[in-house]
What we know:
The protein is mainly alpha-helical.
Amino acid sequence: MVIVSGIQPSGNLHLGNYFGAVQQFMKFIDEGHDCYYFLANYHALTSLRDAKRLKELTLSTAADYLALGLDPARCSIYLQSDLPEVCELQWILTTVTPMGLLERCHAYKDKVQQGISADHGLFAYPVLQAADILIVRANCVPVGQDQKQHIEVTRDIAQYFNNCYGELLAIPEPYIPESVATVPGRDGRKMSKSYNNTIELFASDQDVRQQIFSIVTDSASVAEPKDPERSILYAILKLFCDSNAQQYWTDRFRSGGLSYREVKQAIFDRFMEKFAPMRERRKQLENQPEHVEEILKKGVDQARKAALPLVKQVREAVGIRNI
Ligand code: ADP
Ligand code: TRP
Protein backbone atom coordinates (compact mmCIF):
# COMPACT_ATOMS: atom_id res chain seq x y z
CA MET A 1 0.00 0.00 0.00
CA VAL A 2 0.99 3.62 -0.44
CA ILE A 3 0.69 5.64 2.77
CA VAL A 4 0.86 9.42 3.08
CA SER A 5 0.45 11.88 5.92
CA GLY A 6 1.62 15.34 6.96
CA ILE A 7 1.87 17.54 10.00
CA GLN A 8 1.89 21.34 9.88
CA PRO A 9 5.09 22.87 11.29
CA SER A 10 3.01 25.52 13.04
CA GLY A 11 4.05 24.75 16.64
CA ASN A 12 5.84 22.22 18.82
CA LEU A 13 4.81 18.58 18.45
CA HIS A 14 2.67 17.21 21.26
CA LEU A 15 1.15 14.00 22.65
CA GLY A 16 -1.85 14.30 20.30
CA ASN A 17 0.43 14.38 17.27
CA TYR A 18 2.36 11.39 18.57
CA PHE A 19 -0.49 9.08 19.53
CA GLY A 20 -2.93 10.34 16.87
CA ALA A 21 -0.49 10.33 13.98
CA VAL A 22 3.24 9.54 14.33
CA GLN A 23 2.68 6.23 16.15
CA GLN A 24 0.63 5.03 13.16
CA PHE A 25 3.27 6.39 10.76
CA MET A 26 5.73 3.99 12.43
CA LYS A 27 3.37 1.04 12.21
CA PHE A 28 3.06 1.39 8.43
CA ILE A 29 6.84 1.71 8.04
CA ASP A 30 7.32 -1.45 10.11
CA GLU A 31 4.82 -3.29 7.92
CA GLY A 32 6.94 -2.45 4.89
CA HIS A 33 4.54 -0.13 3.05
CA ASP A 34 5.59 2.65 0.69
CA CYS A 35 5.38 5.60 3.11
CA TYR A 36 5.47 9.38 2.44
CA TYR A 37 5.58 11.65 5.50
CA PHE A 38 5.90 15.37 4.91
CA LEU A 39 5.82 18.72 6.68
CA ALA A 40 2.84 20.75 5.51
CA ASN A 41 4.51 24.16 5.46
CA TYR A 42 2.20 25.63 2.79
CA HIS A 43 -0.71 24.67 5.05
CA ALA A 44 1.04 26.25 8.05
CA LEU A 45 0.88 29.61 6.24
CA THR A 46 -2.87 29.66 6.91
CA SER A 47 -2.17 30.16 10.62
CA LEU A 48 1.41 31.44 10.88
CA ARG A 49 2.57 34.72 9.35
CA ASP A 50 6.08 34.96 10.76
CA ALA A 51 8.76 33.92 8.26
CA LYS A 52 11.53 33.42 10.81
CA ARG A 53 9.36 31.30 13.09
CA LEU A 54 8.03 29.20 10.18
CA LYS A 55 11.59 28.50 8.99
CA GLU A 56 12.70 27.49 12.49
CA LEU A 57 9.66 25.33 13.11
CA THR A 58 10.01 23.63 9.73
CA LEU A 59 13.53 22.41 10.43
CA SER A 60 12.82 21.60 14.06
CA THR A 61 9.73 19.56 13.16
CA ALA A 62 11.81 17.64 10.62
CA ALA A 63 14.30 16.86 13.41
CA ASP A 64 11.35 15.84 15.62
CA TYR A 65 10.18 13.35 12.96
CA LEU A 66 13.65 11.77 12.92
CA ALA A 67 14.00 11.73 16.70
CA LEU A 68 10.61 10.02 17.01
CA GLY A 69 11.98 7.19 14.90
CA LEU A 70 10.79 7.83 11.34
CA ASP A 71 13.59 6.10 9.51
CA PRO A 72 14.59 7.88 6.28
CA ALA A 73 15.95 4.61 4.92
CA ARG A 74 12.44 3.14 5.04
CA CYS A 75 10.18 6.10 4.22
CA SER A 76 10.30 9.42 2.38
CA ILE A 77 10.45 12.47 4.64
CA TYR A 78 10.09 15.79 2.81
CA LEU A 79 8.89 19.36 2.83
CA GLN A 80 5.62 20.02 1.05
CA SER A 81 7.06 23.18 -0.54
CA ASP A 82 9.98 21.22 -2.02
CA LEU A 83 7.37 19.51 -4.20
CA PRO A 84 5.65 22.60 -5.65
CA GLU A 85 3.79 20.41 -8.16
CA VAL A 86 1.24 19.87 -5.36
CA CYS A 87 0.17 23.47 -5.95
CA GLU A 88 -0.31 22.80 -9.65
CA LEU A 89 -2.36 19.70 -8.90
CA GLN A 90 -4.31 21.68 -6.32
CA TRP A 91 -5.29 24.23 -8.99
CA ILE A 92 -6.50 21.55 -11.36
CA LEU A 93 -8.45 19.91 -8.53
CA THR A 94 -10.09 23.22 -7.56
CA THR A 95 -11.65 23.32 -11.01
CA VAL A 96 -13.67 20.16 -10.26
CA THR A 97 -14.41 20.97 -6.58
CA PRO A 98 -17.92 22.27 -5.85
CA MET A 99 -18.05 25.33 -3.55
CA GLY A 100 -20.58 23.55 -1.32
CA LEU A 101 -18.08 20.79 -0.51
CA LEU A 102 -15.62 23.33 0.93
CA GLU A 103 -18.31 25.46 2.58
CA ARG A 104 -19.20 22.46 4.74
CA CYS A 105 -15.63 22.04 6.08
CA HIS A 106 -15.29 22.65 9.84
CA ALA A 107 -12.21 24.88 9.95
CA TYR A 108 -13.73 27.33 7.49
CA LYS A 109 -17.30 27.05 8.78
CA ASP A 110 -16.24 27.58 12.44
CA LYS A 111 -14.36 30.75 11.58
CA VAL A 112 -17.23 32.18 9.58
CA GLN A 113 -19.70 31.28 12.35
CA GLN A 114 -17.51 33.11 14.88
CA GLY A 115 -17.80 36.17 12.66
CA ILE A 116 -14.11 36.07 11.69
CA SER A 117 -13.48 36.70 8.01
CA ALA A 118 -11.73 33.69 6.51
CA ASP A 119 -9.16 34.04 3.76
CA HIS A 120 -9.07 32.01 0.57
CA GLY A 121 -6.15 29.92 1.91
CA LEU A 122 -8.29 28.57 4.72
CA PHE A 123 -11.18 27.96 2.32
CA ALA A 124 -8.97 26.12 -0.17
CA TYR A 125 -7.00 24.25 2.56
CA PRO A 126 -8.75 20.89 1.97
CA VAL A 127 -8.02 21.01 -1.78
CA LEU A 128 -4.29 21.41 -1.12
CA GLN A 129 -4.54 18.51 1.32
CA ALA A 130 -6.27 16.45 -1.40
CA ALA A 131 -3.38 17.27 -3.76
CA ASP A 132 -0.84 16.12 -1.11
CA ILE A 133 -2.59 12.78 -0.90
CA LEU A 134 -3.53 12.18 -4.53
CA ILE A 135 -0.15 13.21 -5.94
CA VAL A 136 1.55 10.07 -4.59
CA ARG A 137 -1.48 7.84 -5.33
CA ALA A 138 -1.94 7.05 -1.63
CA ASN A 139 -4.36 4.32 -0.60
CA CYS A 140 -4.29 5.07 3.10
CA VAL A 141 -3.88 8.19 5.27
CA PRO A 142 -3.11 7.80 9.00
CA VAL A 143 -4.52 10.84 10.86
CA GLY A 144 -6.42 11.86 13.99
CA GLN A 145 -10.21 12.10 14.09
CA ASP A 146 -10.16 15.85 13.39
CA GLN A 147 -8.89 15.10 9.87
CA LYS A 148 -11.61 12.61 8.95
CA GLN A 149 -13.66 15.20 7.09
CA HIS A 150 -10.65 16.30 5.07
CA ILE A 151 -10.04 12.74 3.88
CA GLU A 152 -13.69 12.44 2.90
CA VAL A 153 -13.36 15.67 0.92
CA THR A 154 -10.25 14.24 -0.76
CA ARG A 155 -12.20 11.14 -1.78
CA ASP A 156 -15.04 13.28 -3.16
CA ILE A 157 -12.66 15.50 -5.14
CA ALA A 158 -10.87 12.45 -6.59
CA GLN A 159 -14.21 11.00 -7.63
CA TYR A 160 -15.35 14.25 -9.26
CA PHE A 161 -12.06 14.31 -11.17
CA ASN A 162 -12.31 10.66 -12.22
CA ASN A 163 -15.93 11.09 -13.36
CA CYS A 164 -14.89 13.97 -15.52
CA TYR A 165 -11.54 12.81 -16.92
CA GLY A 166 -11.33 9.01 -16.44
CA GLU A 167 -10.20 6.75 -13.61
CA LEU A 168 -6.82 8.30 -12.93
CA LEU A 169 -6.79 9.11 -9.24
CA ALA A 170 -6.61 6.51 -6.45
CA ILE A 171 -9.34 6.86 -3.80
CA PRO A 172 -7.70 6.88 -0.34
CA GLU A 173 -9.03 5.55 2.99
CA PRO A 174 -8.39 7.26 6.33
CA TYR A 175 -6.76 5.20 9.10
CA ILE A 176 -7.96 6.37 12.52
CA PRO A 177 -7.63 3.82 15.37
CA GLU A 178 -10.42 4.50 17.86
CA SER A 179 -8.28 4.37 21.00
CA VAL A 180 -6.13 7.34 19.93
CA ALA A 181 -8.57 9.18 17.63
CA THR A 182 -8.72 12.31 19.82
CA VAL A 183 -6.21 12.94 22.57
CA PRO A 184 -7.64 15.50 25.01
CA GLY A 185 -5.61 18.58 25.90
CA ARG A 186 -4.90 19.91 29.39
CA ASP A 187 -8.23 21.77 29.33
CA GLY A 188 -10.28 18.82 28.03
CA ARG A 189 -10.68 20.15 24.47
CA LYS A 190 -8.79 18.37 21.67
CA MET A 191 -5.07 18.80 22.28
CA SER A 192 -3.88 21.23 19.61
CA LYS A 193 -0.99 23.57 18.87
CA SER A 194 -3.53 26.32 18.37
CA TYR A 195 -5.28 25.96 21.78
CA ASN A 196 -2.31 26.37 24.14
CA ASN A 197 -3.33 23.15 25.89
CA THR A 198 -0.59 20.76 24.81
CA ILE A 199 1.92 18.48 26.49
CA GLU A 200 4.95 18.92 24.29
CA LEU A 201 7.11 15.96 23.32
CA PHE A 202 10.38 17.88 23.37
CA ALA A 203 9.93 20.60 26.02
CA SER A 204 12.39 20.68 28.95
CA ASP A 205 11.76 18.20 31.79
CA GLN A 206 10.58 21.08 33.91
CA ASP A 207 8.10 22.37 31.32
CA VAL A 208 6.74 18.88 30.67
CA ARG A 209 6.21 18.50 34.42
CA GLN A 210 4.49 21.86 34.61
CA GLN A 211 2.26 21.00 31.63
CA ILE A 212 1.25 17.63 33.08
CA PHE A 213 0.60 19.05 36.53
CA SER A 214 -1.67 21.72 35.03
CA ILE A 215 -4.12 19.19 33.51
CA VAL A 216 -7.59 20.26 34.67
CA THR A 217 -9.29 18.13 37.35
CA ASP A 218 -12.51 18.43 39.32
CA SER A 219 -12.70 19.16 43.05
CA ALA A 220 -13.34 15.57 44.21
CA SER A 221 -11.51 14.70 47.46
CA VAL A 222 -8.87 11.95 47.62
CA ALA A 223 -11.27 9.60 49.41
CA GLU A 224 -14.07 9.87 46.84
CA PRO A 225 -14.46 7.21 44.13
CA LYS A 226 -13.94 8.74 40.68
CA ASP A 227 -15.34 7.94 37.23
CA PRO A 228 -12.36 7.23 34.95
CA GLU A 229 -14.46 7.78 31.82
CA ARG A 230 -15.00 11.43 32.81
CA SER A 231 -11.39 12.16 33.70
CA ILE A 232 -8.94 13.94 31.38
CA LEU A 233 -6.12 12.51 33.51
CA TYR A 234 -7.33 8.96 32.94
CA ALA A 235 -7.70 9.53 29.18
CA ILE A 236 -4.09 10.70 28.99
CA LEU A 237 -2.65 8.07 31.34
CA LYS A 238 -4.43 5.34 29.34
CA LEU A 239 -2.34 6.19 26.29
CA PHE A 240 0.71 4.81 28.08
CA CYS A 241 -0.97 1.67 29.50
CA ASP A 242 -1.35 -1.90 28.33
CA SER A 243 -4.64 -3.62 29.19
CA ASN A 244 -3.44 -4.81 32.63
CA ALA A 245 -2.25 -1.36 33.62
CA GLN A 246 -5.50 0.12 32.34
CA GLN A 247 -7.49 -2.26 34.52
CA TYR A 248 -5.30 -1.39 37.52
CA TRP A 249 -5.95 2.35 37.10
CA THR A 250 -9.66 1.87 36.38
CA ASP A 251 -9.96 0.02 39.70
CA ARG A 252 -7.90 2.63 41.53
CA PHE A 253 -10.14 5.44 40.20
CA ARG A 254 -13.36 3.61 41.08
CA SER A 255 -12.38 2.47 44.57
CA GLY A 256 -11.47 5.92 45.94
CA GLY A 257 -8.35 6.89 47.90
CA LEU A 258 -6.55 8.04 44.76
CA SER A 259 -5.13 11.55 44.61
CA TYR A 260 -4.94 13.43 41.32
CA ARG A 261 -1.36 14.26 42.24
CA GLU A 262 -0.46 10.56 42.17
CA VAL A 263 -2.01 10.18 38.71
CA LYS A 264 -0.14 13.23 37.40
CA GLN A 265 3.11 11.84 38.74
CA ALA A 266 2.34 8.48 37.05
CA ILE A 267 1.75 10.27 33.71
CA PHE A 268 5.00 12.19 34.11
CA ASP A 269 6.99 9.02 34.92
CA ARG A 270 5.54 7.12 31.99
CA PHE A 271 6.03 10.05 29.64
CA MET A 272 9.70 10.22 30.59
CA GLU A 273 10.15 6.46 30.35
CA LYS A 274 8.59 6.30 26.88
CA PHE A 275 10.09 9.42 25.35
CA ALA A 276 13.54 9.53 27.04
CA PRO A 277 15.40 7.86 24.14
CA MET A 278 13.65 10.08 21.58
CA ARG A 279 14.32 13.22 23.63
CA GLU A 280 17.98 12.23 23.80
CA ARG A 281 18.13 11.69 20.02
CA ARG A 282 16.39 15.03 19.50
CA LYS A 283 19.16 16.79 21.47
CA GLN A 284 21.82 15.23 19.27
CA LEU A 285 19.99 16.28 16.10
CA GLU A 286 20.04 19.88 17.35
CA ASN A 287 23.67 20.12 16.24
CA GLN A 288 23.19 18.42 12.89
CA PRO A 289 21.07 20.71 10.68
CA GLU A 290 23.00 19.60 7.55
CA HIS A 291 22.08 15.99 8.27
CA VAL A 292 18.40 16.95 8.49
CA GLU A 293 18.63 18.98 5.25
CA GLU A 294 20.21 16.02 3.49
CA ILE A 295 17.37 13.73 4.53
CA LEU A 296 14.76 16.23 3.30
CA LYS A 297 16.56 16.43 -0.04
CA LYS A 298 16.66 12.69 -0.46
CA GLY A 299 13.04 12.44 0.67
CA VAL A 300 11.73 14.88 -1.90
CA ASP A 301 13.67 13.15 -4.67
CA GLN A 302 11.81 9.96 -3.78
CA ALA A 303 8.44 11.70 -3.53
CA ARG A 304 9.04 13.37 -6.90
CA LYS A 305 9.54 9.97 -8.53
CA ALA A 306 5.98 9.08 -7.56
CA ALA A 307 4.48 12.54 -8.06
CA LEU A 308 5.79 13.68 -11.45
CA PRO A 309 4.36 10.82 -13.54
CA LEU A 310 0.97 11.44 -11.91
CA VAL A 311 1.09 15.17 -12.61
CA LYS A 312 2.08 14.41 -16.20
CA GLN A 313 -0.92 12.10 -16.64
CA VAL A 314 -3.25 14.63 -15.05
CA ARG A 315 -2.02 17.35 -17.40
CA GLU A 316 -2.62 15.09 -20.38
CA ALA A 317 -6.05 14.11 -19.12
CA VAL A 318 -7.22 17.71 -18.78
CA GLY A 319 -5.52 19.06 -21.92
CA ILE A 320 -2.56 20.97 -20.51
CA ARG A 321 0.60 20.19 -22.45
CA ASN A 322 3.72 18.64 -20.93
CA ILE A 323 7.01 20.16 -22.01
P1 ADP B 1 -2.53 20.60 15.62
O1 ADP B 1 -4.04 20.42 15.74
O2 ADP B 1 -1.86 20.54 16.92
O3 ADP B 1 -2.16 21.83 14.80
P2 ADP B 1 -1.92 19.16 13.23
O4 ADP B 1 -3.16 19.78 12.66
O5 ADP B 1 -0.64 19.57 12.60
O6 ADP B 1 -1.95 19.39 14.80
O7 ADP B 1 -2.07 17.58 13.19
C1 ADP B 1 -1.12 16.67 12.73
C2 ADP B 1 -1.66 15.27 12.90
O8 ADP B 1 -1.84 14.99 14.30
C3 ADP B 1 -3.04 15.07 12.25
O9 ADP B 1 -3.10 13.75 11.76
C4 ADP B 1 -3.99 15.24 13.40
O10 ADP B 1 -5.21 14.57 13.20
C5 ADP B 1 -3.20 14.62 14.54
N1 ADP B 1 -3.62 15.19 15.82
C6 ADP B 1 -3.46 16.48 16.21
N2 ADP B 1 -3.98 16.67 17.43
C7 ADP B 1 -4.51 15.47 17.81
C8 ADP B 1 -5.19 15.03 18.98
N3 ADP B 1 -5.43 15.85 19.99
N4 ADP B 1 -5.58 13.73 19.03
C9 ADP B 1 -5.34 12.88 18.01
N5 ADP B 1 -4.70 13.25 16.88
C10 ADP B 1 -4.29 14.52 16.78
N1 TRP C 1 -4.44 19.11 7.57
C1 TRP C 1 -3.57 18.25 8.31
C2 TRP C 1 -3.61 18.67 9.79
O1 TRP C 1 -3.88 19.80 10.10
C3 TRP C 1 -2.15 18.30 7.81
C4 TRP C 1 -2.07 17.78 6.42
C5 TRP C 1 -1.83 18.51 5.29
C6 TRP C 1 -2.26 16.43 6.00
N2 TRP C 1 -1.83 17.70 4.21
C7 TRP C 1 -2.08 16.42 4.60
C8 TRP C 1 -2.53 15.24 6.70
C9 TRP C 1 -2.20 15.24 3.86
C10 TRP C 1 -2.65 14.07 5.93
C11 TRP C 1 -2.48 14.06 4.54
O2 TRP C 1 -3.35 17.85 10.61
